[in-house]
């Protein structure tokens, strides 16, 4: 019973936060926007428009209705992923279509690399926390700190220089080669192209996860229930598995959840470095050309993605910690 | 044969700041059905002894001397035999039971774990026994499915006690079992420990800084100071007629209502216990001692006879060698 | 009736006279001693000292860049230098496509990157501390509302927000500082609130209020001193993140075109095809600077954290 209440509670919080953020976005993008977006757009077009034409654009964009109604419309549109048409990148094309094209590619990249990053970081972190102060542990900590201090686009460029420059193992960008391939060959080609950006995103965050898990395990190992487990005559490896790790995972999950926002930010720069045709690259182009509709889409989708990821983290936490399930 | 026999036990911690001799030569024995109370201020080494009996300290800690539990030489046991001896020969009620339970594991599972780890029963049998143990400590058996956060402090302590009984050990080490509890709950838990110890005929080592508690519970009493025992004897006699100045000061700090000695006010003891790395020369208590004389800094007292079935490490006791022969 | 022995002052027995300090002087003495103790512990932390030396080095470079001759950076002044040349004796970090020495770019960029990082972190620290203290001190409704706000900003993908803000308000040096500061205060707020709540438990706060002390007095005199070390360590780590964030923004082309930070140098290099042209020195020099500085701040921050919250381990 408590579990359902916990889940519903978290789900409710998710929606509330989403609404709050969207309202904040409305304030920023519509209310406090400096200047008139229609005029800015017209100027960027380098064409001359008559006042009537501008009025029509204003109407199309829904900017000529009073603010409270705009707010409701904005919220409705955002929640249905309707961001209008792209103003610059691909005029006349729906923003949502543009996003759907790149979404799959970005999703595969982000999801697989993040999961690998978490898995590797957590496993190595447990090992590091269990056997601290060895030479290996110190070097692992050093490498982790360096990875943590490196902007992900720098890491990407280093990988390109080494693996695509010095040794030509992987291509330096894009999603697939210009030559049309079919079937298995095509998948191999795509995989080769995805390898370096995937590796970049994975390495960029594995250092942080390693340090967090290691630190968390060290904290837990000082707790009394660990001494008690040993006193009961349990073997060390079971003390680790059954008592230390389940407790150490809890703060780790919380801290990992906090990095989702940073992971998403990393995707934009990594896709740029590798010219990977996903939603990150799309956002960069929208930024260059001031395509506000696409940018709004980027914002809303990023927020939704992070909120969903946080919800999954909350689910996992609830599964592991009975104290939140049965308060 | 004693359940626990400790002879010249020395425990030295290895820290970044050097060696710390926490226990500097302690000897005692506990027979079946006997309760030995071990008292002293924090830092005197009593909790260190508790950990040493089951060799729970880290591998870096040096443990020397003789430690015999149920006839086994604990210090020479192989890791496998040591693990088998833990909990079955002796079990511990930890100091902060509020944090000694794994927060993400059901308490029933934690009790069962002790049983199944030693292959004493199948899972089903272990579950039944866990319920029975809970009943024995005054909790309803259905609570084996509860998590620690669903219990009060006193209930958690009862669960700890139930856990210690799981493998029917010969010795129970109670390390400050009531310190973190409310006074009313303290009384209940003490009552529980006393009746269990009596009904099951267990040997118990009761460690605390609260002397007044020990008097009721223990048969014999040993007072520790700076890593050594400074007085030992029958509990009642030691408390009401202390021979060592430190014991007297400790007893005075915990006045018993109705005791004529304390009618005016409790007296404290000035100063702090010595840093184990900088123990004063001679008698370690002399800087704080009311009855210190000029030879005290130059004599290291041993446990000399201080009366029938009483020993104390002080130059003033009857059995202390004459001062001329000791002065050197 | 016992007669009390005459009370003897230490002076009467022959002890040297004690300097009488005013409460303010006493506070300063105590603070000096506390800092001394902290420094002694910090000195033993190898990583912390290494980080500190790196920071000192870059601080010197940044200060130098304020007074250095900017001529070397102006492409209109014909330097006659080789274009896109690798590191050599004359150009230790090589040159970029206009013949400008990369070393000069990096020195100039140090000032911008460090300044933006520090500025943004200060804003973040200020906001986070104020909100955290407010929420922690005044529980219930205020706390709940502020915590909701904090959670929102904690979850917010900062870059997505920063991009829109930068696109709207322009690529201005101060705007960038403001944007980063306004999007990264939530972590500090949570930390500060937790600290305030734990300090609040202590009785001397209750006693102070029982004596009628105003809220502000309690806050300033009792809560702040306990918070300062924690906030300080957290700020150091925030600076590291701020520098990383600034480099990301600059790499996406949102940096101030008039003040080129390290991130902006990398952006230009990338845009001009340094990667395909294998002009690794142009890309790596500013990159290594970013990594070194962020690493340095992180190590110093971790070292401070270890001293403030020591882990009691037997081994």
Overall shape of chain A: it is globular
Question: Residue share in helices of chain A?
Answer: over 70%
Determine the mean pLDDT of chain C.
Answer: 81
Helix/strand/pairing category of chain A: mainly alpha
Number of helices of chain A: 14
Distance N terminus to C terminus of chain A? 11 Å
Mean pLDDT of chain A: 85
The level-1 CATH class of one domain in chain C = Mainly Alpha
Tell how many strands the DSSP assignment of chain A holds. Answer: 0
- Determine the N-to-C terminus distance of chain C: 58 Å
- Overall radius of gyration of chain C: 26 Å
At CATH level 3, the topology of one domain in chain C is: MetI-like fold
What is the N-to-C succession of helices and strands of chain A?
HHHHHHHHHHHHHH
Write the layout of secondary structure elements.
The complex is a heterotrimer of chains A (327), B (328) and C (315).
Chain A: H1 2-31, H2 37-45, H3 51-60, H4 67-79, H5 95-130, H6 135-149, H7 152-166, H8 183-221, H9 224-231, H10 236-258, H11 260-273, H12 279-288, H13 292-320, H14 322-325
Helix pairs in contact in A: 1-4, 1-13, 5-8, 5-10, 6-8, 7-8, 7-11, 8-10, 8-11, 9-10, 10-13, 11-12, 12-13
Chain B: E1 4-15, E2 18-30, E3 35-39, H1 46-53, E4 62-69, E5 72-73, H2 79-85, E6 90-93, H3 107-117, H4 123-136, H5 153-165, E7 171-175, H6 183-200, E8 203-208, H7 211-217, E9 220-225, E10 228-234, H8 235-240, H9 245-253, E11 304-307, E12 310-312, H10 323-326
Parallel strand pairs in B: 3-8, 3-9, 6-7, 7-8
Antiparallel strand pairs in B: 1-2, 1-4, 4-5, 9-10, 10-12, 11-12
Helix pairs in contact in B: 3-4, 4-5, 5-6
Chain C: H1 10-13, H2 23-43, H3 46-67, H4 102-137, H5 141-155, H6 158-169, H7 173-183, H8 186-200, H9 203-210, H10 215-251, H11 262-271, H12 280-308
